[in-house]
Amino acid sequence: MQKQLMVVRGLRIALIGCHTRDENALLLQFQRLGIAGDSFSHFHPTIFDAPYDGMIFDSDNRALIQSMEQNSWPALAKIALLGMETPSRVKWVIDQNINGYLRKPVKAEGVLSTLILARHDFQRQKQLQDQLQQFEHRHQLRRFLLSAQLLLIKEFNFSEQSAYALLRQLATEQQKTVEEFCLIVLANPEAWIRHIKLLSL
């Protein structure tokens, strides 16, 4: 776990649609922990025009549930306050992609650990999503690698392995990934064919 995720002092947390009893308990504990807490009776996207480090919402708030049918949560760590445990309510909470939860009525115990774990889970999910996007991007570029290899095979009678080795060498010289470099080659194949011919002289 990243060291900064263990620090909660100075965080700013939004409380959305929480019951007064739970809201007061959270704000009191926030005060003890050095956390700034802002309370909102209803969700509105403009709430998050201000910078927040996370949010806590009441999963039993019917108005909030209805509101989220037309809205989406911002990309922040989300903690749900759980009261009702009907299958439909639990499913709704799962669908919100929460990073943690607190049982109602809220008590001081567990708030600190839940905040830390929720922020860690959010960061971990974000990193996984970033890695997946990078993988998908590179997967899309693989077809350009194949096209560049076929170009070298056709022009120089290279084997598939030799074509790849040369592309990788040239990509390293250009400080690019081999897939990114293949895009450059295919954008101007004649110039790169001439360049490769000069290298072989």
From TrEMBL:
Pfam families: AmiR_N. Residues 125-186 form the ANTAR domain. GO terms for molecular function: RNA binding. This is ANTAR domain-containing protein.
